[in-house]
Design brief:
By secondary structure, the chain is mainly α. The protein has 18 helices and no strands. It has three domains: about 70 residues; about 150 residues; about 200 residues, no CATH class. The chain is flat, with a radius of gyration of 27 Å.
Length: about 425
Amino acid sequence: MSLFERELLKRLDSYKAEGLIDARSESNLRKALEAKAGASARASREALYIVGAILVFTAFAVWVCHNWAAFGERLQEALAFVPLAISAVLGVFAIKKDLPQAWKEAAAFLNVAGVAAMIYAISRIYNIQGDTARFCLAVICLSAPAALIFRSGAAIAAICVLNAAFSAACPEPELALGIGIYAAAALIAYSHLKTGGVFRNAVMVFVCLCSTVSISSAASYEGRGTVLAAGFAGVFLAASATKRLSQSPLSGNPFALSGFLILLWAVCMGASRYALESLSEPAAAEAPAAFYPAFWTLCALYLFSIFRAFRNQRRVNALLAASAVFPAFAAAMFSGSFWISAAVVNAAAFFGAAAMFAGGISANSRILSNAGVAVILLQCAARAFESQADAGIRAAAFAAAGLLLMAFNFYLNRRKSDAR
């Protein structure tokens, strides 16, 4: 219940006394607002119940861990399955009583934690030596059904964190399995989450960012992770330019928002002098074999997204222009020259930011225009005092960005004066 609705509920009697509303309207408004206040209070109490239960369970877990060595082997085996049993009971209770989604989220997340605790405890009891990759993969496989049954965004986020640890520790041939887990998590989150738009979009953004960071770090070498990160940004932005996903750029579109956040990182850290120098150098002999399959897969997805976008006349051209950061980084990698890399990458970043700014103004979208300004300002801040070698390029880029902003400000003022 918002502050406005609470204040309105307080003033209903005075509005009725002053004759601003009649008795029937006052009664209907009071019933509706009181019902909404009751629902809000119930949601708050349920949240407190969940937090309290988590604290009690945490206290029990701390006590058990502290006294673990004093327990017998049979008691240790029984305690290893307690968290998993609690999550199962809570899940069945939430489904039978049709409790709110928060209870199902808690049950699914507790299932992931319970599976991890069970595997760790059993391996500790029987002294089973394993590695991080196998542990994470086992937890993912055993807890994935709970994420599907409860349609839990919290469980999906936990699985992505475990998959990041698996991708970092697994042998290189198994990296494709980690990529498949990310793809499945994104598909489930996009098509099955029924917990509300904001929560669903937050989970989608987390999955996209987690997969980008994990795959780029696991398959890259000598700064070439920026190319893969830019590839993800290009694919997300180009896919978001189509009719199906372009209804609300950035604000209600998790793919566009993820691409924008990755773009911010790419133009700030990935386009630094050190990154561009390492990017333009020849590839090392010990480079991971997974880099080029991941790179060419992103190229195919990018071209497919561009093809779909250009077939749609209602596409968002600003997002297409911003997606050009991927071919810019790819050209920088194959150019072999630092100066070409710096010119191409910085030009693509400024061009994409300017297109977002212009597209936001023409479409009356403050979010899109502010996103373009954020990219320009962040890139300027990251390049201002980096080195003296490419000062001319940076000075020209800063001047062009400043003139562009002033020109659009002049254009906006003219439009407002004409409207008056």
